[in-house]
Amino acid sequence: MSPAQGLSRRKSVKEVLVDEHLLDAAAVDQAEENARREKKTIQQFLVEQNLVERAKLLRALSTAWEVQSIDLSKAPPPDKEIIQLIPESAARRHMAVPFAKNDSVLSIAMADPRDFFVLEDINLRTGLELRAYLALPQDIMALLDVAYGRNESAVMDKLLASVQQQEKDKAQLPPEEGGQIEVQKEEKSDITDIDASAPEVEKFVNAIILGALNLKASDIHIEPFEDPTGKSSKMMIRYRVDGMLREANFTMPWSYRAAIIAKLKIMTNSMDITERRIPQSGRIQILAKGNPIEFRVEVVPTVYGESAVMRILDRKAVQVDIHRLMFLPETLDKFLSLLKGIGGKKNFGLIIVCGPTGSGKSTTLYAALNHVNRPDIKILTAENPVEYNIDGIVQVPVNPDIKLGENKKFDFAAALRSFLRLDPDVIMVGEIRDEETAHIAMEAAMTGHLVFSTIHTNDAPSAVTRLVEMGLPPYVVIATLKAVLAQRLARKLCDKCKRAEDPTPEELLVFRENKVEIPPGTKFYRPVGCPDCKDIGYRGRLGIHELLILSDSVKTFALKQMSAGPLREFAMQQGMMSLTQDGLNKVISGSTTVREVLGGADETK
Ligand SMILES: [Zn+2]
Questions:
Q1: Residues in Cβ contact with 456 at an 8 Å cutoff, skipping those fewer than 6 apart
Q2: Whose CA, among 208, 285, 290, 331, lies 20 to 30 Å from 411?
Q3: How far is the CA of 499 from the centre of ligand 1 (A)?
Q4: DSSP 3-state percent helix, strand, coil across the chain (nearest 5)
């Protein structure tokens, strides 16, 4: 057979198995079907089920495909640095892992070493000469898991395998005496449902949490998806990392859905595990690697059963130093000058931080409070809920569900009203979303208090007009408002792997349109992906800001023309930097990309 024929006519795994008399065609078909259902490769399935011995399988494939093979499970573990010569995502996609390097020759284990395109791609990425070996896909994935710290996925695989085995054993149990199985007549109660106290449930929950900590996720989403045929029903686990949702590399067996949620409820010490029809919330405190970690847990009923969202409460978010929020230096100077001279009723007025949900508004507010927090200054906050306690600040959790007599509830407005009797210097009220709260915040600001709050608008001028739309007289808004800070978050390029490249014509156009000059010698960077950033190319986020200071000239203008568009234009003439301009300056400093500045914040929703 000529080499050309060899390439064009390649035996499939099935053909090799049948030709070598390892299994008959029907058995292979059945195994392929089962492997597909379990989302495994046929090689993994055959070995796990003891249908073919690992050594025999390797030998048969290596002979038929005319390539050398390596049993990675027996070879000494390669250096992490060598494994990481190929980005994780590419390695997983190609089922290929480098395991040795001599001078310019890279030895690489592959599930299918005759895949020319994979070899070409790896050659382009590494610039090394390649020597390909055949290996079992499960061994390749296991090496990658270890190298990239995805051990929880390996742990999970083992757990799942043992659980599946248990279920199989259960299914093979002979029917009880009389051979009758009692069918429950009540609702569709599932006889395979697992009890929350089963030991593997705790392990599942731990693995889910560990996965979040490894990825530095902010939220965990646990969601049931029922397939009407019952075949691919699953509990999907997703993590929010730097604002983006990503699916975990494992799912939970369907039969565990209720047990996992019940376990979470038990861990809160406050939720009712028998109540499955109404939303519930609570908190979980755990120790992970010696550090106390707290989660806020929300459980909501869905058509497929209960779903849970766990938010990791980050103590660091309230201890944040305002100098670390990535303000441009001139914007920070202006913002800090607004916070000077508090106490003795000398600095008063309203400062608003605005932006969409998840734009870091409360982090900025906490940073501002930390900045002004001194023993001689009294600070009161009304929050819903209070996520973390800050030393030296009196924090009041508001709860609109608490009724204060007829038609009165303990909301932001009620808290603010009581604050005025407590004579604070600084007040922070979580959010202004109705006329009543806006009205009392203004009253507090006018009577000698420095008031911080947030409003849900996209840019700074719109926050001014929003207050007027809420029903406040324009002259009151203008007299009281000191400044509005609009903000968004953009992902920050990973410093370890970002790569300098020339800007594209489209990017240059964005700079021209926004009148931002690019200093000579500026480098534009692109995301690449490395182990440090889990192959994303971005790591962490930075704030993009737009600070509108209500100077005398801006006040005069706004009184004449209270609409966001003209107000924005005037403020920019007076030196206000727009969100986009601020972001483009952070592109110039090499921290992020034009794409993030223009669209990144929207994608995070
Ligand atoms: Zn990186």
A1: 354, 355, 356, 357, 431, 433
A2: 285
A3: 10
A4: 40, 25, 35
Parallel, antiparallel, or unpaired for β 291-302 and 305-313?
antiparallel
**How far does residue 537's CA lie from ligand 1's centre (Å)?**
5
Using the mean position of ligand 1's atoms as its centre, give its distance from the Cα of residue 210 in Å.
21
- Measured in Å, residue 528 CA sits from the centre of ligand 1 at 7
Q: Which two tokens stand for residue 421?
A: 């009797």
Residue 290 has which token pair? 């010696």
Contact present, 416 and 437 (Cβ < 8 Å): yes
Tell me the CA distances in angstroms from 446 to 351, 372, 479, one per residue in order: 12, 19, 8
Q: Are 328 and 545 in contact (CB under 8 A)?
A: yes
> How many Å lie between the centroid of ligand 1 and the Cα of residue 556?
49
Distance 532 CA to ligand 1 centre (A): 5
Q: What's the predicted TM-score (pTM) here?
A: 0.60
SS3 219: strand
Ligand 1 (single-atom ion) residues, CB below 5 Å: 494, 496-497, 530, 532-533
Separation of CA 88 and ligand 1 centre (Å) = 11
Over residues 6-44, the pLDDT tens digits come to 444 578 888 899 988 888 999 999 999 988 887 788 898
Cα→Cα distances 124→86, 130, 575, Å = 10, 11, 48
298 DSSP β-pair partners: 281, 309
Q: Give the Å distance between the CA of 529 and the centre of ligand 1.
A: 4
> 85 CA to middle of ligand 1, Å?
13
Q: What is the pLDDT of residues 223-272, one digit of tens each?
A: 888 877 767 788 889 998 888 888 887 778 888 888 899 999 999 888 99
